Amino acid sequence: MIKTRFGALLLIVTIFVVQYVGAVESGPSNTVGFWKADVGHGFTQISFPLLPNDKTVTNVLGDQLTGAGVPEESDQIHRWNSGTASFEICWYNIETSQWEGQFSELSESESYWIYVQPTSPAMQTIITYGNIIEEPSYGMGQMVPGYNAIGSIWAMPAQVTQAGLNGFEGGLYLFLSDLLMGYDASTGSYSYAWQNESSTWMGDLTALEPLQGYWIYVAPGHDGFDWPNYPQPESPIANGIIQVNPNPIQDNLKSIPPVPTPQPVTYSTSTSQPVQSTSVKGGAQ
Fold first, then answer.
1. What residue spans carry the region label Disordered (predicted)?
2. Which CA distances in Å does 31 have to 47, 52, 84?
């Protein structure tokens, strides 16, 4: 069982499938995990390392958050689209019992922002299950120039130095390097990992944690990179070294564009930017 910074936990169990063919036989075993997250008013960044075969938002979340008849009054999920460099939203329509909006499915490799309305209960709990990825590595896809929102798909912390980020480009200074960034809601600040010109990892972000969301920022002038091999961590103990940057981090961040910040859909914003309501199929479980 793993607890995270924002009051979530992840539990892994093994389910043995029983088959009845004349006599009772034990069939193949599927390792599944259950995760639980408490979300309060405002935004909580989260990832979904465990998802069922049906990854539609309706199937994964059902009615566990507070819905409404219009997106302005419903709790929302925001997804960063790196291709358009903008946020997309999904909301729970209580009239159709479906999640609707600008995207339909969740992905293990992405992170999301759950927005809880001020009029919703002060604390809501999300509980769901998903398949444990048991392959030795996972393809995280293409990281494009600018910001990319990612999640860690493994059930234990993965050390940054062992994450397979071979396409990551470093630089003489922090602001010339690609960046890996993690937000700490308890302090309202970011932690960082980057590479110097010798490809040595530096910074105060040492591991990717289950259920957490992260940014990868591809610096200007860099082409982006494919991340085809995110290895399953062998243990939570670091096998590499991250050095502490001798210079104050904030002084080196002045030339980096501000981190994208999601905004809740409200009546004032939705008038000029209407949400396209696309039904997300799949029954809640």
1. 249-285
2. 19, 11, 36
